[in-house]
Structure to design on (112 residues):
């Protein structure tokens, strides 16, 4: 979970202008639950390729818009990019250890 949190923090410091698949395997992947679906996403700063959705290959890209990391209900870190209400974000969660919760707001594009 801490690696996952570190990945999101790095995304804030090192944004990238475009997303692409990591063909040289520089980055690992992680699993997160988004909108009732299980996504496997590349741990790449900024926008990241969605490898699979519910086990099926995907061409989607995840654009991080915000996150909140809590331990035993206490917020340890959070960040939100400014975005407009009309932008459709997807709420995602991950929890690798008891008491730890990562909440993420992302834009998935294209939405498949």
């Amino acid at each position: 979970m801490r690696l996952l949190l570190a990945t999101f923090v790095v995304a804030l410091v090192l944004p990238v202008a475009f997303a692409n698949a990591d063909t040289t395997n520089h980055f690992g992947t992680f699993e997160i639950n988004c909108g009732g679906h299980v996504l496997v996403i590349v741990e790449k700063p900024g926008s990241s390729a969605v490898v699979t959705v519910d086990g099926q290959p995907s061409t989607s890209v995840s654009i991080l818009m915000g996150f909140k990391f809590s331990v035993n209900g206490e917020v340890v870190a959070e960040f939100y990019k400014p975005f407009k209400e009309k932008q459709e974000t997807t709420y995602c969660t991950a929890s690798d250890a008891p008491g730890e919760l990562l909440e993420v707001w992302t834009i998935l594009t294209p939405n498949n």
Summary: Residues 31 and 40 are 4 Å apart (CA to CA).
